[in-house]
């Protein structure tokens, strides 16, 4: 992570692998072995066991709550954290696995971060799950991602409802499969009264899309005589952005993994005064330690919003 007082590293420092993986001779068998590791994490053949995708994100039977690390202060905790979950494909490629295996592993990192946000009092977590530009990827990967979204939401909806997690989805849903649209609608309806943590999932989203759709909405109101030109200001535009679904629409902290130094068309309006952290870890390797470092960096910064303090 690039801390406030440290120079920006020139190259990524990825989690080292004990041995350089061989090119797989059979991609299907490699995928099957990875899935078995996900389903049976106690297997001795799995070097780094991952929880099953069906494990609840926040377990009501946890023996004790996750304490706040000593390097963090509760009164300085960000209300809204946004994450660009980058590096799933590279993580899989380094292990001789297909991209789908990286996305499955990335789900486990998301579960960890959701759990920690809920326990540490962060009110909103927005994750960039699928960009409007991701349609350019191979069809087999896009189809897998869309099915993965359906499976994860269906699998976790009971835990979301039980643990007070509110689900909101932003982005152009008209281009998503009808089955996924129904699942999203059901999840939002089931959890709309929850207030412990709001999880905003950006699917088929981009910052440019968000601004354009807000402008169209305002133009429609002008056509209907509801809004006049002189009424248009920042506040009016923000009311039409898709992040109007939350009490805290502008992230305090944005984290991007994999060492890339860009925001990639994510929440362009909302990130105007957001503190940025770029972590070199690939998303499946991002865990509690990296999240604590990002939060600690945020808490050490002085946010002036253009003023002198």
Round the Cα radius of gyration to an integer and report it: 20 Å
Order of helices and strands: HEHHEHEHEHHEEH
User: Ranges with pLDDT <50 over ≥5 residues?
Assistant: 1-25, 34-63
- Overall form: globular
Strand content: 5-15%
The average pLDDT score comes to 85
Q: CA-to-CA gap between the ends?
A: 26 Å
Q: How would you classify the helix and strand content by structural class? A: alpha/beta
3D architecture notes:
- It is a single chain.
- The protein has 309 residues and is α/β, with parallel strands linked by helices.
- The chain is 38% helix and 12% strand.
- The protein is built from 8 helices and 6 strands.
- The chain has helices at residues 27-39, 88-94, 99-120, 139-162, 178-191, 207-223, 234-240, 288-299; strands spanning 80-84, 124-131, 165-170, 197-205, 253-256, 275-278.
- Strand 3 (165-170), helix 5 and strand 4 (197-205) form a beta-alpha-beta unit.
- It is globular and about 55 Å long.
- It starts with 26 loop residues before the first helix and ends in a 10-residue tail after the last helix.
């Amino acid at each position: 992570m690039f801390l406030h007082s440290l120079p920006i590293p020139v190259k990524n420092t990825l989690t080292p692998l004990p041995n350089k993986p061989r090119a797989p001779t059979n991609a299907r068998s490699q995928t099957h072995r990875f899935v078995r590791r996900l389903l049976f994490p106690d297997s001795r053949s799995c070097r780094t066991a991952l929880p099953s995708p069906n494990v609840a994100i926040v377990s009501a039977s946890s023996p004790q709550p996750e304490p706040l690390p000593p390097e963090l202060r509760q009164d300085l905790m960000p209300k809204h954290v946004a994450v660009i979950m980058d590096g799933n494909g590279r993580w899989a490629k380094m292990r001789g696995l297909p991209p789908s295996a990286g996305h499955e592993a990335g789900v486990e990192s998301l579960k960890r971060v959701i759990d920690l946000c809920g326990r540490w009092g962060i009110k909103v977590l927005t994750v960039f799950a699928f960009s409007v530009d991701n349609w350019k990827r191979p069809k087999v990967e896009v189809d897998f991602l869309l099915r993965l979204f359906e499976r994860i939401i269906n699998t976790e909806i009971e835990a979301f409802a039980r643990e007070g997690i509110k689900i909101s989805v932003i982005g152009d849903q008209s281009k998503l499969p009808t089955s996924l649209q129904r699942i999203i609608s059901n999840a939002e309806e089931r959890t709309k009264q929850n207030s412990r943590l709001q999880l905003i999932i950006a699917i088929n989203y981009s910052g440019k899309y968000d601004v354009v759709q807000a402008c169209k909405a305002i133009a429609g109101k002008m056509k209907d005589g509801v809004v006049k030109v002189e009424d248009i200001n920042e506040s009016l535009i923000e009311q039409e952005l898709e992040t109007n679904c939350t009490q805290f629409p502008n992230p305090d902290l944005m984290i991007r993994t994999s060492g890339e130094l860009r925001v990639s068309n994510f929440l362009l309006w909302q990130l105007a005064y957001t503190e940025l952290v770029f972590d070199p870890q690939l998303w499946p390797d991002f865990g509690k330690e990296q999240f604590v470092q990002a939060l600690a960096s945020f808490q050490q910064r002085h946010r002036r919003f253009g003023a002198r303090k």
